[in-house]
Amino acid sequence: MKSFLISDNRDTWVGMRLAGIGGVIVHEKEELLEALQTAMKDEEIGLVIVTERTMDLAKEEIMDMKLKVARPLIMEIPDRHGTMRSENAITNYIRESVGIRI
């Protein structure tokens, strides 16, 4: 299985290319959704990596895809500038998804 990066940042894209991971750079919501659809149609792609800033362009649509499709796994990562999320982002995500406090 291959991994695929969708980033708004050229530095993140170059770093992933050096690690052997292909991808695209997008700046608009339509470009992001088109890249996601392309990645979902490719049977060889098992992991789609999306940077945080890119995720913010279409968060609702991506979260909907994460819930409805089994493949590829969609994962959010910070870019070279570090995370924009709060310290408790994972805890908050679990609380929102499952409805329990941990």
UniProtKB/TrEMBL annotation:
SUPFAM superfamilies reported for this sequence: AtpF-like
InterPro entries: ATPase_V1-cplx_f_g_su (IPR008218), ATPase_V1_fsu_sf (IPR036906)
Stored Gene3D superfamilies: ATPase, V1 complex, subunit F
Transport among keywords: yes
Single GO MF annotation: proton-transporting ATPase activity, rotational mechanism
Protein keywords: Ion transport, Transport
Record-stated family: Belongs to the V-ATPase F subunit family.
Name assigned to this protein: V-type ATP synthase subunit F
Organism: Holtiella tumoricola
